[in-house]
Amino acid sequence: xxxxxxxxxxxxxxxxxxxxxxxxxxxxxxxxxxxxxxxxxxxxxxxxxxxxxxxxxxxxxxxxxxxxxxxxxxxxxxxxxxxxxxxxxxxxxxxxxxxxxxxxxxxxxxxxxxxxxxxxxxxxxxxxxxxxxxxxxxxxxxxxxxxxxxxxxxxxxxxxxxxxxxxxxxxxxxxxxxxxxxxxxxxxxxxxxxxxxxxxxxxxxxxxxxxxxxxxxxxxxxxxxxxxxxxxxxxxxxxxxxxxxxxxxxxxxxxxxxxxxxxxxxxxxxxxxxxxxxxxxxxxxxxxxxxxxxxxxxxxxx
Amino acid sequence: xxxxxxxxxxxxxxxxxxxxxxxxxxxxxxxxxxxxxxxxxxxxxxxxxxxxxxxxxxxxxxxxxxxxxxxxxxxxxxxxxxxxxxxxxxxxxxxxxxxxxxxxxxxxxxxxxxxxxxxxxxxxxxxxxxxxxxxxxxxxxxxxxxxxxxxxxxxxxxxxxxxxxxxxxxxxxxxxxxxxxxxxxxxxxxxxxxxxxxxxxxxxxxxxxxxxxxxxxxxxxxxxxxxxxxxxxxxxxxxxxxxxxxxxxxxxxxxxxxxxxxxxxxxxxxxxxxxxxx
Lengths: 302, 278
Prior knowledge:
Chain A is α/β, with parallel strands linked by helices. Helices cover 39% and strands 19% of the residues of chain A.
């Protein structure tokens, strides 16, 4: 049976620690769930370091570790916690190489999830990192993608913000783009929305629309295949860019870039501009396939 | 006068004469970036550098804050490279990106500061935790109030790191006095975190008393001192403030006055040659 994303992360971290490439830092790592089962059962003697609950200082401590020629992995259990955890990562670790020629490579695992967890912890917050120079941002949702970005990080000297999502941890399949032929509309998907666009595409195609799909692994620098731009350019209605963060961040920024390259309308869908509440009826979730289908139809029928 | 007093004086005098040149260059608009002068506080790094490098023969990692010229010079940083850095000339110690506040030097293991007050404390703690090497972290009495500084002290104590925290306490955050900002003291905070913590003044003899504890376990020294010039830039708030360097120069006597003239001439020339390149 193929490995899941969860097993892949666990394997990579175990190997990282056993080969003494760097420590793994975070809060409550050795708790019951071992961060969604993505950590091997190892302890401080093995390099699995429990930080205190001081969020801001934690980011600084990890930054200091990276200055000592190690490659720390920093686990942030909910992406919303980045508001307090990322200041020294983005202001110091990310700038150190450019300022002083002193690399400070940190692998930040920001873990997204949503649904019933209230106003601060839910969803992805990768837009927080997006505006800062010196950070690379990716959102791997498959085992191969995760392995690829980890290996790339180990070869480079940059800060990586790895925008994970618990919704992908059970996934063992790889995604494929559909960028061939003439399309009515292209769906460009980031993070957990990649699972939903697959479902939405099927429904829309059953109704006779020609839908392209472009999966995004690399958010910064933003990378999609060159044929994606061609397909969007030749499409009838342009594209929808979907994200698990608020649209007034990465989504609108990237949409603008694609628009400038293709001269087509690039619509965005992400979290609604409201604060999430704890109960279902007041939650703020990323677009699901039904919402994507509805919005796509509206564009296609204009 | 003993030899140690004189050696520490020489280091401090180098710092002071360097800072006077920076002061003049700012006044004459030869330096156009923000500068943070350490004149008045130089006896702290000069004493520590002498004790740590010359006596203990330890070459620690150094995590300074923005007011760091004297730290750099005392611990053996290349002065010419710092002149170039401040003037924005090629060959500056921090590639002209660091300026006055973010000096970095691999040669003396001094790690650049990003400009946010107190970040050097958690970063220094993390570095020490990973390297397990002697580490000295400088902060001001204002930076010490940052929440992440306090929690980092707690973690350093928990992990029993070979780290020395130095609070350069001039009683001011820009011009806001300590008593207005807080009713507690840093050495008490250190003790509450179960590490050695002491409040002393910048008399080298007082600082020397604690040498035996350096890097054996976490320790914090809150050292009272005075900043002679403005928080930033070239100006003076209080001309009557106690000046440790002048006091020590008078105490040591004639030899120190003569040495100071030699140091002044050397540092002035160093600056003059670079100023001519502008």
